[in-house]
Each structure stands twice: as C-alpha cells, then as structure tokens.
Specification:
By secondary structure, the protein is α/β, with parallel strands linked by helices. The protein has 12 helices and 10 strands. The relative contact order is 0.12. Bound molecules: xanthosine-5'-monophosphate.
C-alpha cells in the first residue's frame, strides 16, 4: 500500500502529535517499547512522540559508537534531560573500532557499522529489553530510496535478519512515514526540541568514519573530529547546506620548525544544495578559506596541507567516502 504523504505546509503538528500518540498507546497497550536515538532530527522526533505517548515505558538508548562528533553523547543526553526524557547511553566504542579494524573500502566500512549496530549492540538491547514494540524514525524519503534501490533496507528487523512477527512477536511502529525532512523539522520544533536539533544540518549514519579516507582507527577519527569541530564553529554562520572536513590517506611533505614533516592532509567541502541530489561548492571568501587553513594547521596535530573542494555534484558526491 502506498504511504499517503503529508506535506510540511499541510502538516497540523498538534493534530499529528495527538493522532500518533493515540496510535502508539493503542498499539503498545501496557507493554514496553524501545528505540535508538542518534541525535538526528528523525530519531529525536520519534523519541519525543514515544515519550509523550508512553513515558518511561519507552526505553531510549543512545549508542556511543566512538565515531560521533565532539561531545555528542553528552550533548544529546543533556538536551533530552532538560525535556524530562531519560536516555540510556551505551558505550560501544570498542566494538565498533574492532569491527572497523583493517577496513579501507567505503562500502565495507558502512557494512561493518550496520552489522555491529543491528546484529550486536542494539540487537542485543532489543532482545533483552522485553519490549514488544520498536519505534523507528523511518521517513517517506527512506522508503522511496529503499524502493529505488539507493538504500538497502530501512527495516531494522530485516537488518537483524529475523522475521519479527514470527520470531518474537515484535512490531515496528514508524510514526514519521508520511513525512519528509521539512515536515519532520516542523514536527520536532512542535515537540519542544531545540533549534540545535530541528535545524541541524545532515550528517551521515556512518558518522566520522565517512570522513576518513582509508582505515578509521581511533587516532584518525580523533583527528577528523577535531577538524570537524573547528569547521562547524567557523562555518556556523553560513547558509550552506552541509560542510565537512575529510582526512586523506596520503601524506604530503610539509615543514615544521625548519624540519621536513611528512604530514596529514585535510580536505574541506562546503555545499550549496536544496535536497542533496545536486550540489555546488559554496562561494566561501578567500579570507574565510585562509582562516580555516590557519586553524587546521595550527590546531589539528600533524596537518600540513588543507584543500578546498571545487568540484560539483555530479559527478562528485557530497561525502568523499
Ligand atoms: P552523497 O555523498 O551521496 O551524500 O552525495 C548525499 C547526502 O547523504 C548523506 N550521506 C549519507 N547518509 N548514510 C547516511 O545516513 C550514508 O552512508 C551516507 N552517505 C551520504 C550525505 O551526508 C549528504 O547529506
């Protein structure tokens, strides 16, 4: 059955929240539900809806995979604490880095992260929670992309490799399937989430491992995490669609303290785009580019080269990995 879209403009947030809460309450009854929160707008909106409907009977977990941006687990937990929502933080950094060890191929990296998340860490929580319902932040675009073959699967139980109904009697609730991103942003604002969540720029599921060309070791992730923190602060005032720092695998010769230094290269990308399908590099001022370069070489250990990407999508993609 085709899902009926609710356009952002037509979305009556109060009516939507009331209806979705009722649907969740009538589905879950007196039982428990579970969900994973990443801090992105979709999972944040679902968490708010679920907690409005179920309170403590929704168990929400934030899985710290070690490849998030600086201070992310604490930041997200603090935001939800302010809203009266308890989040369980699971430290799974070792498991994710073990799964990423030795992998350099982009798709293999994605697969390692997906498998570790669904089969191991979150899968285990789901199985042990006693919850019969799982809340997911699937949106209409995810379904379109799944059907078009762009995304492999959007259904967590397919990821787990089980038939939820037959194996456990699990049911999935996807309250956002009628919405696209702009609608979810409007809903998230209406749920009381702060602008830092509902207006946040896109960030890929494979997180900082998508910003490291080659192996995503804890040390290399730490370098790109520092570069990302600097870039996000410096470019916060731009109206760009998305910006990112990428750590290259190749080293280049530089010099430090009058000595040759075979150092690291950071590539900066900053995109103007409407919907990520096409994108052009933002026309950043030369002054801003010089400032970014200065901060990267001074504040990120080992960096001797900084470049700005000037190719458009297509044929480039927005991410480098
Ligand atoms: P590309 O690189 O395909 O990116 O031009 C388009 C948009 O999608 C995001 N992106 C991803 N998001 N998992 C995600 O959740 C991924 O593997 C992934 N790859 C790219 C990217 O950040 C951009 O907004």
């Amino acid at each position: 059955m085709k899902t009926k879209e609710i356009k952002a403009k037509a979305l009556n947030t109060k009516k939507f929240i009331d209806e979705k809460c009722e649907e969740i309450i009538s589905a879950v009854g007196n039982g428990y539900a579970i969900n994973a929160l990443s801090g992105g707008v979709d999972s944040s909106a679902v968490t708010m809806l679920g907690h409005k409907a179920l309170g403590r009977r929704l168990k929400t977990y934030f899985i710290d995979n070690g490849i998030m941006r600086e201070g992310e687990p604490q930041r997200v937990a603090a935001i939800f604490k302010k809203l009266g929502v308890h989040i369980g933080i699971i430290d799974a950094r070792k498991k994710f880095f073990a799964a990423l060890k030795g992998i350099t191929d982009p798709e293999e990296k994605r697969e390692a992260i997906t498998q570790t998340f669904y089969k191991d860490v979150f899968g285990k929580l789901v199985r042990e929670s006693g919850a019969k319902y799982l809340l997911q932040g699937t949106i209409l675009t995810d379904i379109d992309e799944t059907i078009a073959g762009i995304k492999r699967q959007h259904n967590v139980f397919e990821q787990l490799g089980i038939d939820p109904q037959r194996a456990f009697g699990y049911k999935i609730i996807e309250p956002l399937v009628q919405l696209r991103k702009d609608g979810v942003r409007k809903l998230a604002a209406a749920c009381g989430l702060p602008k830092s969540i509902y207006n946040r720029m896109p960030f890929p599921g494979p997180a900082l491992s998508a910003r490291v060309i080659g192996e995503a070791t804890p040390e290399r992730i730490e370098i790109v995490r520092k570069a990302t923190a600097i870039l996000e602060k410096e470019l916060a005032g731009t109206r760009a669609f998305q910006y990112m720092a990428i750590l290259h695998n190749d080293r280049v010769t530089g010099m430090r303290a009058n000595k040759r230094d075979f150092g690291l290269q950071i590539e900066i990308r900053c995109w103007d785009s409407i919907d990520a399908r096409k994108a052009k590099p933002t026309d950043l001022s030369h002054g801003m580019l010089m400032r970014l370069a200065g901060r990267m070489v001074n504040d990120v250990p080992g960096v001797v080269s900084v470049t700005y990407n000037i190719a458009s999508k297509p044929p480039s993609t927005m991410e480098a990995v």
